[in-house]
Every structure is written in C-alpha cells, then in structure tokens.
Amino acid sequence: MKAEPLKAEPLTTEPVTGAGFDPAYIPGLTGPTPAEPVSKAPEAGKATAGEPETAPVAEEPAPPAEDRADADPDTAPDSDADEPADGPVFEASDRRARIVADRKGVRLSLDEEACEFRWDEIAAVETETPRFGKRYTVTVHTPDRRWFPIEIEATARARFKEWDEQLDAVLDAYFEEAEETEKA
C-alpha cells in the first residue's frame, strides 16, 4: 500500500510587535518631536539637473501663544519648567545614570537614553540596595507588567538611607495622590 504524502497548510503568523521592533511600544522611550517641520524641498542654492536655481519660499509659522502680546493668560500653556517645585523632589545621579522624581512623575536617564513616567502610568516603585557595593537600584513598574530598572552608583553607602527617605517622601506625596484620583 502506498502512503499519500502529507499536505501542508500554509503558515500564518501574526506580525511581531514589541519594543525591539517599535520603540514607541514602551511609553516614554520615544524621542522628542522636531521643533521645526521637516521639508522635503531641495535646499536653496542647490539646483538639480535642468532646473534653474531658485530659493524656495518658506512660510513663517505663527509665534507661540506665550510670545504674542495679545495672548490670553487663561489659555496660555503652563510653563512648568520655570516654576520651582513646591513639593518634595528626589534626585540622584552618577556619571552615567540619573533619576528624578517630583510632582510630574519619574524620569530615568542612562547616557543619552531617557524615559518619563507620569504618576498615573506607574504601578509601583521599588528600591534595592546590595549587601556589598555602592549601587542603588530603583525600578519603576507599570500596570502592564513591565519594569524599568536603573542603577545609581553612590559615593558612599550612607547615601542609601538618605535616598530612601527622599524617595519615600516623594512617593507619599504624589504616588498615593495619583491613586486616589484614579479611584474617584
């Protein structure tokens, strides 16, 4: 008896998603948007073959609301960068890494990479101190079960207690406040 060859079904797969393929998959990891719109027009002074050299006419964008004299102060965007922090602030850094936690949320940066989490994007903040060594680890956990650790090298192990107290004060002031507003 001769066996029939097996018929294979076509393989169907879903597209691969995640941070390895799309950095925007993780909130806070994408870079800032460019301040000026990118133009695909050729640069002035460079003529292509067969075209006369002309300077492109660029439209002037309207000035921002805070620069205009007739801007309504009630509709002007808040300039949080100019205001001093009115509550507790935690800030720790070494030669490569930096963490800042204040009323806006938690910002982590390592070398040229940075991410920012608002308080409503954070499920938990965890700290860890090693038994030996001087690396203080802060891990930000998100509600979708992702975590973002960062290690800060302290000048002395005595800084660990100081940093824990400062971070606890920030978490007590802002993290619980964000949870209460979500429940309401």
Please tag this protein with its features:
184 residues, alpha+beta, elongated, 7 strands, 1 helix
Break the fold down into its secondary structure elements and pairings.
Elements: E1 90-93, E2 97-102, E3 105-110, E4 113-118, E5 124-128, E6 135-141, E7 147-153, H1 159-183
Antiparallel strand pairs: 1-2, 2-3, 3-4, 5-6, 6-7
Helix and strand composition category: alpha+beta
Quantity of strands, as a count = 7
Shape: elongated
> How many helices in DSSP terms?
1
Low-confidence stretches: 54-60, 65-82
Biggest sheet: strand arrangement: 1-2-3-4
Helix content class: 10-25%
Note the gap between the termini.
Answer: 73 Å
Strand content: 15-25%
How many whole angstroms does the radius of gyration measure?
26 Å
Helix and strand pattern: EEEEEEEH
Mean pLDDT: 74
Largest sheet: 4 strands, antiparallel
Account of the 3D structure:
Residues 47-60 have a biased composition (Low complexity). Residues 1-94 are annotated as: Disordered. With 184 residues, the protein is an alpha+beta fold. 14% of the residues lie in helices and 22% in strands. It has one helix and seven strands. The strands form two sheets. Strands 1-2-3-4 form a four-stranded antiparallel β-sheet. Strands 5-6-7 form a three-stranded antiparallel β-sheet, covered by helices on one side.
Summed up, what is this model?
The protein is α+β, with helices and mostly antiparallel strands and 184 residues long. The protein has one helix and seven strands, in the order βββββββα. Strand 2 and strand 3 form a beta hairpin.
